[in-house]
Every structure is written in C-alpha cells, then in structure tokens.
Amino acid sequence: MVTRKQKKRVTALYKEGKSDLEIATQLGLPKKDVFDIRRKNDSLTKEEKEQIRKTRRNIIIGGIAIASVIGTRIVNYFLNKQSRFQTNSNTQYSLTLEQVRFGKVSLESYLDERFRLMPDVQAAVKSGMLKGFLYKVPKPQLELILTQMFEHIIPNKEDIKLEVRTGLEAYYKPWLKEEFAKIVPGSLHLFGKKVPLYVGFGDSIIYSSVLTTDADITGAIKHELEHIKDWYGGINVGGIYLSFDTTSPKTFGLEFLGNLLELRAHYKELEEAYKELTTTNKMSVSDKYFGDRAIGYLKHWNYIKNNVTTDLERRVSASQLNDLKGIFPSKIGKDIYLSFNLFGEKEEIRVRPLK
Ligand SMILES: [Zn+2]
Prior knowledge:
The chain has 355 residues and is an alpha+beta fold.
C-alpha cells in the first residue's frame, strides 16, 4: 500500500526532474507504483499518454478479435467414431443465417433474436457483465455510451475523452476479414473493473468462410461471452488474479494477454462442441468452424507455452495449460490432434487441413 506521504514525495521528486527508476529506488517502491501515482496525479508526459493509448489499441486489435488470421482455413476433420455424427436442425430460433445471407432477414433482427433467446447471453446480462449487443451504432450514440461508462472509473475528464476516442476508433475502423465481433470497449483500463460491456458485431459475420451455420454463430457468440467474462471480472488462474490493477507491461505482456484470452475462448468453444457430442452424439457446428477453432487453439496454446518472458507469465502459463489439459492439442505433420478428456470420455479428434 502506498502512503499519502509517499505519493507526495513521488510528485515532488518527479518535479525535481528525477526518473521513475530513481524515485522508485529512493523510496523503495516498485517502479510501477511510481508510474501509477504519476498517472493518477495526471503528471504523465504527452508521449506517455500517447503510448498508453497505442497499447490499448493494440489489445483491441490483437486480443479481442474473434479469429486470428490463419493461413489454412479450409479443414476437414475425422473422428474415430464417425457414425456418431448426425445433422442437427435448429429449432430454438426462428431466424436463420441463411435468411440473413439471402437478404430476407436483417442481421440486426437475427442478432436481436439471439440476444433475447440465447440462454448464455441472458445469463451474462443477468449477472451484470453484458450490457448488450451493438450493431451499426451511430457515432453520437456510442460516444454517449462510452462516456457514461468511463465516467464511473476515470476521474479525469481529459482521460475520459482519450478513452472514448480510442473506443470510437476501435469500433469504427474497418473490420478485419475474419473479425466477426469484438467487445466494446476493449480498453485495458476496464480489465477486471466490473464494468458491464457490449459485444459489437460487424457484417463480416454474414460473409465469413468460417461461420457457415447457425450453430457456428452460437459458438462465435459464446466465444465473445468468454471475453466479456474475463474482461469484466479479470482472470483467475491457479490462484493468480489478473486485471488492470495486477498487471503491467513489465510483468505481463499485452501479446501474452491477448493469446491467453484467445486460448480460453477457443477452449470454451471446443468444450461446448464436445459436450454436445458426448451428450447427444452429434455436433451441430460445421467442420470448417471446428477445424478453425482447433487451429486457433493449438496456435494460442503454443504461444502461451513457448513465449513466456516474465515470472508472472511463467506461473500463469503453467497453471493455465494444466487447467485446460482436458483438451490437449498437438500437431503431427499437417494434422492437428485434439485429445479430449472431458465429461467422463476420452477421445481424439483429428483435424486435417484440405491442402
Ligand atoms: Zn477472441
């Protein structure tokens, strides 16, 4: 805990022209605390503020996009129990992706029905973490929404404006080809702050080569809900709590965080697909979707396994991979193998890219 006296000393020493490191050494404080005190006192330089803004934008691009860009997209998978597969009809909802693609139903109506009827979505709303779905929101409206959100947690008006501007830029910038949805706002400031968030959708969800069935869309929405859960409450891994307040670029890299979020969301999707398989003997999601998720899962798994640079990352990596060992990915040649050990069943699913 930093005392008021220490805070005053930090401000005074900074005014004398001392660096954060010098101040930290002199007062026996972590350098991060010195920086945080300056941030709260609004004594950051323009460059530092711009740096924070850029970092936040990075996480919006790198961390929250539903699918990372992967070279091989067309995949086919084979299961050792092929006969278990049956097609599934979609009875829960009245509107279909096909209707949207043929222009018979608007994407807005389609998403609205999902919002109202999808149990996981409604559970997220009830728990307070999800505020709503956003689709083509007019700028003044989103500006108001974001301002009200940040007013709760940021005291300084200039900082609020900065966050709102960053949030608007992230929402209105052209969406990547396979970017279907993103959490709004994806500001690092809100990581673990229990501020209700939105899921924003783009038109790319209709034209995606990965999401081809209604079940795929359901999966994609569940992916976003995982991000919402992590972003809203922070992440608990093996007794370690990760949030804006417990991490810094020095202790926990943004790219590492982005991969961690994606790994967890991909796990959720694969787990859901497998749960359906074990309980109903069918899998409603498309092969392409399943394969794409498997490729993504392996990629993020390997990143978390092999790109540890700090002590905190090392501990999180070990705990997280252990927690997720119920779906163990590996690659042999071009094939990806997912070894499931979940819901009392064990089996391996092979994902084979088609060229
Ligand atoms: Zn994602």
